[in-house]
Each structure stands twice: as C-alpha cells, then as structure tokens.
Amino acid sequence: MKTATFTALSLLVGVSNGFTPPTSRPLSCHQYSSSTTTAQYAVEEGHPAVIGWPEKYSEGGGSIDDGTTGPEILSTEFQIQNASSSQLQQLDVENWPTWTTSDKPKWGVGNQVVDKEMPYGELSYVLSGKLEIIPQSTGVPEIVNVGDFVTFPKGFVASWKVLEELTWHYYLY
C-alpha cells in the first residue's frame, strides 16, 4: 500500500472545495505538539472517503473561509469525550456530514463487528444512539453515548457493537 506523509493542510488542498483546516486559532495541546500548527499523518493516497469529505462538508453548509471555525483533530489517540456547546460551535459540527446505522444491516442493533481497523482518522459526534467499542489494545469495553466526541485514529483496531441505532456527524482526516 503506497502511503505518503501529508500535513492536514496539504492533504486536502486541490480537493473539491479546497478544504483546509484553520490555523489562526490556538490549537489544543492534545491535538498537536506545540512546535507545529498542522498535524501530520500518514494517509493512504486517494482514499475515497477522505477525499470526498470536504465536498460533503461544503454541501452541508460548511465553510472555513474566515479560518475561525471548522473541523479540527482533537486527539491523536482513541478518545471519548463529552462535547461542550462551545466546541460544537467552534468545530462547526452541525455542518459535518451525517452517518447512520439505520440503513446498514451490518451495523444493526445487537450486531458486533470484530477487529474493525480504521483506514483513516475520524472524529465523530454522536447525535443519537449508543455504541460499545472494545479496543484491541486494551480489551476494555468503552461506551459511546449521545453528546460524545469520539476520536478514531488511523490504524485503530476495535470490536464494535451497536447497542442503540446510531446517527452521528463525522470529520475524516
């Protein structure tokens, strides 16, 4: 598999709608090292989900023209955290694309997907439902609830069990 290291900024330059992450606001210490303003990730060249994300964001009404709001990476590790209203506004979550399990039999309530590996990084915000995630690295079940942000880093492997039908907004990087 051919990979290349891109900054989050250069990964999406030239892609439909020219999405670039904001750099004018302070960055979270959980998100980046203090010596850089853009995260670097080894991303599979041409992954269709990542390439198509900026267009979906734009279609949903998202715009980063002013550089003060828009999606950003909250963590480089798997993490579940409750979202604050200020984070939701700052990250422009309401304009992120939406995904649901309702029309996907593989992700039906009670189904478990074992050892799913994330082919890209994703930050999700849960609008409805409940999910159990068991990271392969710990074997300890984690519950994701309404109002949570969940960071899935590229390469993260876990078993997933849908406890209640899910709907979430997502940011792919």
Q: What's the gist of this structure?
A:
This protein has 173 residues and is mainly beta.
Shape: globular
Report low-confidence residues grouped into runs of 5 or more.
1-44
Oligomer: single chain
* Coarse structural class: mainly beta
Radius of gyration: 16 Å
Report what the structure shows.
Helix content is 13%, strand content 35%. The longest helix has 12 residues, at 48-59. It has helices at residues 8-12, 48-59, 85-90, and strands at 3-7, 40-44, 79-82, 98-100, 112-117, 122-135, 142-144, 148-152, 157-172. It has three helices and nine strands, in the order βαβαβαββββββ. The strands form two sheets. Strands 3, 4, 5, 6, 7, 8 and 9 form a seven-stranded antiparallel beta sheet that branches. A two-stranded antiparallel ribbon has the order 1-2. By secondary structure, the chain is mostly beta strands. The model is unreliable at 1-44 (pLDDT under 50).
Task: List strands and helices in order, with pairings.
Layout lengths: L2 E5 H5 L27 E5 L3 H12 L19 E4 L2 H6 L7 E3 L11 E6 L4 E14 L6 E3 L3 E5 L4 E16 L1
Antiparallel strand pairs: 1-2, 3-8, 4-9, 5-9, 6-7, 6-8, 6-9
Features:
35% strand, two-stranded antiparallel sheet, disordered N terminus, mainly beta, 173 residues, 7-stranded antiparallel beta sheet, 9 strands
